[in-house]
Amino acid sequence: MSSLEQRMENIDKIISQSSEIGFCVPARYNINPRVDLHDKSKPYRQKTFGERNDNNKPHKTLLLVGETGTGKTTLINVMINYMLGVKREDKVWFEITDELPSEQMTDELSVQSQTSSITIYGFYLQESLIDLTIIDTPGYGDTRDIDKDKEIAMGLLNLSRCDNSIHEIDAVCLVIKSTVNRLSERQIYIFDAVQSLFGKDIAENIVLFFTHSAGKQPKNALTAVKVAKLKCAVNDQNQPHHFLFDNCQSEPADGEDDKEDEKIQEQSWDRSYKGMEKFFTFVENIKPKTLLMTQNVLQKRNQLEAKVLNLRSRVQEVEQKQKELKQTKEALKKNEEYAKEKNNFEYEVDVQYKDRVDIDPKKWCLTKKATCCTVCEENCHYPGCWWAKDLSWCSMMKDNHCAVCTNECHYSKHIKEAKIYESKTKKEKRTYEDLRRKYNVKIDDTVSVATKLEENLKELEKEKLKLVIEAFHCVETLELIALNTDSLLTLQHIDFLIDKLKEINEPDKAKTLEDIKKRAGEEKQGALGYIKCLFRKK
Fold first, then answer.
1. Tens-digit pLDDT profile for residues 42-60
2. Under CATH, to which class is 3-290 assigned?
3. Would you tell me how many other CB atoms lie within 10 Å of the CB of residue 85?
């Protein structure tokens, strides 16, 4: 049997097992999965095609990441048709995805992502020369809620933990439109978020997929990638490894006699075929990377970001306590004569208290609950770990103790509910007699009361100093462990920490953070503005 006859036999076999989508040219078929799981307790959806039973068959695992509207869905189908050896002259097109093609989306900036969870496509057909696992992430930069992007990161972390078949990555494919001339603040944010997922060892496995290509080198898009300081594999010319694809080869021709239309479709097929051919040659020659370092990065980044957020909150609480004590000192000084004459007096202060409030049910995210410490009255993890039924599994726990809350309490002291702690202040009237009893001093001993207040203020200043330094070291650690060394997740806290470090007379540490901010450049400062805008919409 000739290779052509063998290919046609394979195609006929696949058609017989598929569902017809539309009979035109090319005829479109959806390959029916053997398994379609969508367990909401898991951080991913799984669709399997065929049986993986040939241990000698090469197996590749790819991670596809791209913002909504780049044509990632179509690209997955291009990959499958290439693996099946489908040619343009076969006049068929196979699909394994069930989302709407991105080309049908009209307003790219306001479009809603068609995928709500990570999807794993296991492709194990006998007709293919290799087995393939594709990890497809939802579109980054979804305008509904920035928390969704954090959930993608958490989903990848949990996926690497609970799926034994996914322990290494051959390539991370960043999908970008070839027509990009400059990166918007939104796109810079997306690239930054993607790089924040990985350890430093995976840079040489990151490649660029340029979609909607007309065949020319995307010089402007490549320049934009360099400006964004995207870390990825480079070729012999020190250029980012990139591959070109068109996205219209599956579109039906207007008519068989339309020569110009046929020529455009032929060019589209050839362009994408060559792009896939070059890509799989690259994958064959690159060493896959274990997910252990990436898993470690994700774990530590989640813990450290939660800790920095917690520390920021605690610094603000300390400052509020300082304000309360200063108001008390002012009241004591103002009424000093009354106190000396053993007269009681009343004064008013702003008092801080903790309140448990409901999480906004309208927020679009998988995490409707927060992990909170009932002893410290602090929010230890939100959003995140929606899958952790047992709190000992929460990524904030280390050796069964929380790595975030003040006292590092045991996980059993934590609860997971649709509520979070909020610090609030209220006006409260107090008397000098209350103050005297608190410090156990004589009625007219205003000096001792003032001394006690001053000692309390100094203790609070020491606590504030300790918290700010601890937060600084968290940022330092974040800078060391990840591929992305000036992450926007870090930059969100930079200005706050710089100000606090200057307040506690730590100019060298403040300069370290200022250098990080400077290194990030104006582009990321703009993207940071984009993030803050999203937070304001929440």
1. 667 788 888 877 677 888 9
2. alpha beta
3. 15
